[in-house]
């Protein structure tokens, strides 16, 4: 089922890319977009985890560190292969998991997270990320992030093409309509974001439940989420991309009011409430 969802997602994103290609260059632009989509699907399936980790400058964690040992213990408790462990030099407390399957997974946390949580809260956060690994939805979120990034990039190209007269000759009806370019530039990223929202919100609740169970107490994760929500609104993550928002445990764009309108995450207060109900 997860594999079918992944290919369905790839199909939707490919269609959006083809619409952009048609708006920019007509049939030829659509063909180029189709070829590009094929390449992006291949790259996102096999290498999207490395791309995302590189985007955030993630550094591998040594096996003798406390973080690595905690992840190892929880992975054993969850009965999943040991993922690679990374740390990101960002002040905002946050974390994400990536990879194409449990045997090729990675968990990354920010230095800001390590600074504000205790061991119990950290185990709740790591348990949540291992939930994504166990539930096999890390591929979906990572592919969605990579493809959404490509769509946003092409949409920006369409916008600049419209601004600088990217229209084609009047007798060429295959594409290049400035109005179409503007509409595509505005609507395509929103469409990609809506797809991410559709696949992201439900899986956060499931990962929360898994993290609560693996860490041993639902309140560990509830307390961590309360801290993350508060700090993420005050501490920005300058390198955060809307395309990768869905991968993090809380939105790295939480301080951006406009971004909140299209957040890929359910309300943190609702997540905390469900976790607190589990503790009774």
If you had to describe this structure to a student in words, what would you say it looks like?
The protein contains nine helices and four strands, in the order αβαβββααααααα. It has 280 residues and is of the alpha+beta class. The longest helix is centred in the first third of the chain and has 54 residues, at 2-55. It starts with a helix and ends with a helix.
Which residues sit in consecutive blocks of at least 5 with pLDDT less than 50?
A: 167-173
Report the β-strand fraction as a percent range. Answer: 5-15%
In one word, what is the shape? Answer: elongated
**Individual helix count:** 9
Query: Radius of gyration in whole Å, from Cα?
Result: 20 Å
Strand order of the largest sheet: 1-2-4-3
Q: How many domains in all?
A: 1
Q: Work out the number of β strands.
A: 4
Structural class label:
alpha+beta
What's the end-to-end separation, in Å? 33 Å
Helix content: 55-70%
From N to C, what is the helix and strand string?
HEHEEEHHHHHHH
Q: What integer is the average pLDDT? A: 83
Largest sheet: 4 strands, mixed
């Amino acid at each position: 089922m997860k594999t079918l969802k992944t290919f369905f997602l790839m199909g939707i994103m490919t269609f959006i890319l083809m619409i952009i290609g048609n708006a920019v260059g007509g049939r030829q632009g659509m063909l180029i977009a189709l070829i590009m989509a094929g390449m992006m699907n291949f790259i996102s399936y096999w290498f999207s985890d490395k791309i995302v980790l590189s985007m955030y400058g993630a550094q591998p964690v040594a096996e003798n560190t406390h973080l690595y040992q905690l992840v190892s213990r929880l992975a054993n408790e969850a009965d999943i292969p040991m993922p690679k462990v990374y740390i990101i030099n960002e002040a905002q407390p946050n974390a994400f998991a990536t990879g194409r399957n449990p045997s090729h997974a990675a968990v990354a946390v920010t230095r800001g997270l390590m600074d504000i949580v205790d061991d119990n809260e950290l185990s709740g956060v790591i348990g949540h990320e291992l939930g994504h690994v166990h539930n096999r939805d890390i591929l979906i979120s990572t592919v969605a992030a990579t493809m959404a990034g490509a769509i946003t990039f092409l949409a920006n190209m369409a916008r600049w093409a419209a601004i600088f007269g990217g229209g084609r000759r009047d007798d060429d009806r295959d594409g290049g309509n400035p109005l179409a370019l503007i509409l595509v530039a505005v609507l395509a990223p929103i469409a990609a974001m809506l797809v991410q929202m559709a696949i992201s919100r439900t899986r956060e609740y499931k990962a929360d439940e898994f993290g609560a169970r693996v860490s041993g107490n639902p309140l560990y994760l509830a307390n961590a989420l309360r801290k993350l929500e508060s700090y993420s609104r005050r501490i920005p993550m300058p390198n955060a991309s809307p395309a990768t928002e869905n991968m993090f445990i809380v939105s790295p764009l939480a301080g951006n009011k406009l971004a909140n309108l299209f957040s890929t995450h359910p309300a943190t207060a609702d997540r905390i409430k469900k976790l607190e109900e589990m503790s009774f």
